[in-house]
Specification:
By secondary structure, the chain is of the alpha+beta class. Helices cover about 25% and strands about 35% of the residues.
Amino acid sequence: MKFSKSAGILTFLASVPAYSAQPSEVPAKAPTATSAPSPTSAKGAVSWTRFSDPFERAFTIEVPAGWTVRGGLYRKGVLDPRIMVDVTSPDGQINYRIGDASIPPYTIPTPMGMQLGFREGAPYGGNGRVQGMIARYRNGTQYANLYAQARFGKACGNIAVKSMRPADPLMRIGLTGDNAGEVVFTCEAGGPRAGYVYAQSSLSGSVHDGLWGIPIIYSFLAPQAQGKMAMELMTHSVSSYRENPQWTQAQLGMIQQTNRQIQRDAQANLDLVRRQAQRADSQLKLAQDFDDIINGVTLTRDPTTGQTREVLTSQNPYHWVNGLGGVVSTPTDNSPGANYQRLQTINRGQQ
């Protein structure tokens, strides 16, 4: 199968707002713990219906008819749309999930960031554009294992990992790289059960200072005797994912508009820094001239000789000196006589 341009990157858009993923050809069968099974036996047991995202009409996906389906596209921010489709059999025994709306985009902690309070697990947003989190980088295999423990640990005591290994990424998404992993496990939850998690981790930047996310993840838990059937059904659903081209275009337009706003915000921040620097310079000048203000004198310079002199501060802002050294202040920039030279007002820092 072939994913559309933005299929599978819904949870990763916020991490790299200016990035557009390049699609790659994906095998017709999703990776499994052994080999991708044919859904023939499962198809014989169920019929299929197409589920449509109820929130933004972003995608459709095939699910077993008569099963309970929850989910859609959950928008956590302009650049943070997340897909999740949770499917449960009528008897409640089989559950599989494609995507997970609880997984945020991640920012790797840095020493400077940690000094500012941005430590592991802390929320990290982008002016409402994303709802991210600070977290060390995990590859696909590590994340699949952590996710299995986090998602199934409460309902499934004593998880026993049977296989944990790398898998092929389904798409090229990260600017730096992509890798994937899968975990197969068993547990006891009202009887022997089997579970599976596939996770793709995508990185942009360094593992010490970058952005990463889990753009593709799917998992299931089922009675051990029905594990093969659960894998077949989930694989079929993953393969049937179709993104709405109109939604894709609208989302790309939203990204472009937001990127322009980000650039405007960056320029505004630069302007703010510039104004703060000017304000600081003004404050420095005030500090330098503070004693002169208290003492009622103004520092001036004769442009002809370069000599500086203090004159009494008055309501008249213009100061003039004649050839005999006499100083006169006037309210306007009009010379009081032919022999007068205007003095320049300076601050102490210009001496």
